[in-house]
Design goal:
about 350 residues; alpha/beta; 6-stranded parallel β-sheet; 6-stranded mixed β-sheet
Length: about 350
């Protein structure tokens, strides 16, 4: 028979939870107690503990020592009310099944944590129509600012009641992005230099800015090399996900391309699977290049060459930008564009190359 244990004091009565040795509960330490010990006003103690720059360093240290001695902890709810801030950012991502967004979230978290902030995460799950409603719910929860990834709903990006930073290039708001045109060029130039004669391009939804920019870069490199891009050498899929990419990859490979540049690593993984289904070797018969250099690109089963857009740096920079915008809303912020780099692995070693046998 189950029983519930309770502490009993020396008088035989149940001891009060949190009370010292069964006695009366200790009164909660108040900000006023910290102020008295530090010999400052309650307002000064509050400003010192909230890190306001108007408080001198000696005074702040004296208040912090007093708070530590009394084991005083700032009530986050009270602090939010007094500062009219929640120390939380709304973070809207396109599709969490894409590992790019997980890497991006790690960068955002690292950047926010340094300043005592956290974030609320909303996933569009590939449905752009949800963005407006999800953002409204976050604003109703009084987030201090918003980080929004593509696709960027114009109705969201025009909001003036909350600071907004876009991830990827966006008109009208400060943004943090990778140079996706340069990334597309890097991928195509690499395939051409490796001896592939007919690179193809696998993508979805060209209305999304990074997708269209990568396509521009791919086409620029093809034109500069004198490579004719045939109508069937580009394939638009129903979505950026694996299943739709697999269908598109089969069609693209059957059209005769000897290599494929994909706008993300998930689609590139689908191309490798489709090539194997058709009895083609990677990289000997088909070269494959992805984008984002997510952890899956380094898996031994993929060994995927991929364009690294420095995703962790993107997230960290976006976090720092939104915090700056919250603290100094009237200061114009310059957008940030990071340079991509190509991480070369086995999937694009060149025609006639074969994967080494496993021992």
């Amino acid at each position: 028979m189950a029983s519930t244990a309770r502490r009993i004091d020396t008088a035989g009565k149940p001891a009060s939870a949190g009370s010292p040795r069964g006695g009366r509960p200790r009164p909660a330490v108040r900000l006023r107690d910290v102020a008295e010990l530090a010999e400052v006003s309650t307002a000064t103690a509050s400003r010192a503990l909230n890190g306001e720059p108007t408080i001198s360093v000696p005074t702040r240290k004296r208040v912090e020592r007093a708070a530590s001695k009394l084991a005083y902890h700032v009530n986050p709810t009270a602090r939010a009310l007094s500062l009219r801030r929640t120390s939380a950012i709304g973070f809207v991502v396109g599709d969490l099944t894409n590992p790019f967004f997980a890497q991006l979230a790690r960068g955002v978290d690292a950047g926010l944590r340094e300043d005592g902030y956290t974030y609320l995460l909303a996933d569009l799950a590939g449905d752009a129509s949800r963005q407006k409603d999800l953002v409204r719910e976050m604003v109703n929860r009084h987030v201090d600012g918003l980080l929004v990834t593509v696709p960027h709903d114009p109705r969201v990006m025009r909001r003036s009641d909350v600071p907004i930073v876009a991830i990827d290039r966006c008109k009208g708001v400060p943004y943090v992005s990778c140079d996706n045109v340069a990334g597309g060029r890097l991928a195509a130039e690499h395939l051409i230099a490796g001896g592939y004669r007919r690179p193809g391009f696998l993508f979805a939804d060209p209305s999304i800015t990074p997708v269209s920019d990568r396509r521009i870069g791919f086409r620029q490199a093809m034109a500069a090399a004198g490579n004719e891009l045939r109508r069937n050498d580009e394939k638009q899929c129903a979505s950026l996900g694996y299943d739709d990419a697999y269908v598109g990859a089969l069609q693209l490979l059957r059209a005769g391309v000897d290599s494929v540049f994909c706008v993300n690593d998930v689609m590139a993984a689908a191309v490798i699977a489709a090539a194997l289904e058709l009895g083609l070797s990677v990289p000997g018969d088909v070269g494959v290049v992805g984008y984002d250099d997510t952890p899956m690109a380094g898996w031994r089963t993929l060994n995927l060459t991929s364009v690294d857009q420095r995703t962790m740096d993107l997230g960290r920079a976006a976090a720092q930008m939104i915090l700056t915008l919250i603290r100094e809303p009237d200061i114009p912020l310059a957008s940030i564009t990071l340079e991509p780099r190509l991480v070369v692995r086995e999937s694009s070693r060149g025609p006639r190359a074969r994967r080494p046998r496993r021992r």
